[in-house]
């Protein structure tokens, strides 16, 4: 392997296995070498401007976040990652700030359900954890997920709703944080009912 390819591999290792054309250029590498490495089989093009070293395992969670840095996993997807449901998601629930243009992301990924969130509420509860394949991903914390479920109850699958609420309160619920979020989302009284019943 040559020094330039090693540099590209290093960039990929620091970016959950992916490397973008912009990262290659920022490292002072001529973008023309990308084609050379793709043609020789050392790099594989995953999406426009996104590559992985050959034979790399592709983490779909990480790939989506490489495509859209403001993306936060939410609803059923986040609940699954947190272990609050055993229902394997058939699509990725993501949240982005209202007004964010994700048309390319939606066009490239048929398995996405996008939730557009008011900018003042978007940042509430964002945290990081590992995806099922081990990549570091951004998602809403458990309390934010529970608030979203309660707030949007009529749009949530009943089995998912019941299991997530029960499992959350059966574990180690952070009631103080849940009530704080509930106040922000205007559902504090509904949350109080759950805390008393469960």
Automatic annotation (TrEMBL):
Residues 7-52 form the AbiEi antitoxin N-terminal domain. It comes from Schaedlerella arabinosiphila. It comes from the Bacteria. It holds the Pfam family AbiEi_4. This is Abortive infection protein. InterPro entries: AbiEi_N.
């Amino acid at each position: 392997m040559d020094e330039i390819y090693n540099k590209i591999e290093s960039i990929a290792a620091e970016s959950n296995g992916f490397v973008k054309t912009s990262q290659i250029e920022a490292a002072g590498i001529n973008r023309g070498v990308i084609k050379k490495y793709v043609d020789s089989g050392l790099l594989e093009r995953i999406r426009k401007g996104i590559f992985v070293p050959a034979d790399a395992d592709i983490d779909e969670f990480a790939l989506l976040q490489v495509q859209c840095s403001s993306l936060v996993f939410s609803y059923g997807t986040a609940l699954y990652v947190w272990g609050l449901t055993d229902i394997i998601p058939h699509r990725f629930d993501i949240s982005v700030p209202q007004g964010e243009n994700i048309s390319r992301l939606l066009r490239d990924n048929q398995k996405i359900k996008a939730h557009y969130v008011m900018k003042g509420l978007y940042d509430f509860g964002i945290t990081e954890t590992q995806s099922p394949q081990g990549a570091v991903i951004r998602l809403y914390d458990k309390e934010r997920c529970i608030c979203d479920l309660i707030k949007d109850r009529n749009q949530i699958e009943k089995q998912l709703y019941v299991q997530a609420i029960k499992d959350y309160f059966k574990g180690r619920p952070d009631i103080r944080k849940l009530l704080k979020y509930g106040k922000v989302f205007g559902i504090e009284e509904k949350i109080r009912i759950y805390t008393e019943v469960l």
